[in-house]
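ugh ok fine here u go
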Amino acid sequence: MPKFTPATRGALERLRYRNKVIDDLKALDVVELQKQCKTEGIPYNGKIEAILDIADTRVLARFGTTTQEPADVIRVEESEDRGGSSDHDAGSGDVVA
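structure:
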């Protein structure tokens, strides 16, 4: 069996949990599903949409977001203005980090 990285293991756990929630919600009738939507603060837009929205909300609540915050981008002009050294200033043996 292949070894999983922590990120892969987390993604699999997240997917399994989402699938379990979807299976549990599929067994509910429309009235119960509407109650769940009201409890979770989700608009009811049909059974399938409601099931997916509730599942996504529960997964987000349990695991948090999987997206990373956008990185700060420093334009080259701003980098030079901040006093950063360029590769051209370094000697041949110097390491620029």
